[in-house]
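User: Study the chain.
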Amino acid sequence: MSPMTSLLNPVVLRITLRATLGRKRALVFTLIPLVLLLITVALKVVAKSPVWPAEFLGVFGFSVVLPLTALIIGTSVLGAEIDDGSIIHLLATPVSRLSVVVSKFVAAAALTIVFGAIPEYLAAGIAKGFGDKLSVGLLAGALVAAVAYNALFVMLSVLTTRAIAVGLIYLLVWEGLLGNLIGGVRVLSIGQYSVSVANAIARSSALNAHLTSSTAIVMAIVVTLATLAIASWRLSRFALKGEAV
């Protein structure tokens, strides 16, 4: 078995994708990007400001569409199984806990790219053209958001049964409120990582980026790896103790 196969279990990945798309909450994360595209089309017709694409897609796309899509998906790929107890069956199989976490995370990130990052790029393409620097930058930033947010939300789903509530507090209080008031908070803000990566390509002050691209990329990698490691550790403890969550 190759290292990649042992880390990413294709069976767990396939089952997770099918189960996530089959849940009722899938309707929510399919409607969110549709709203983004519809508003973009409307603004394309009526907006007069030359910087509205960066202002709108930078705020609504990176503050609402991407984090909410990742929150709904990331907390469900593993959290739903923990909530209903079916995680016991998965933990009883000879699949490493790290492989379970990574497979769930990859499924969540892939779905968020499809329902969050790609619609962000399509919206930017409608507004500015698909080859425009803003469109390419927003796609790059959206990919960073899809990866880092899902790592965080998968971890939260393992740590608490109230992952959605905790995730919303992180988004609204930490990123939304404190991130706008306290400069140091931005270094630990996934939203700033994604916007800063986007701005490194788009070069638009309307994106309101406050970090250098190198800082954003390094911190996104650190946060992703750290949160996945914590999720794997916690799931291993859950398996060993046989705790009811």
Summary: The chain has one domain: 3-241.
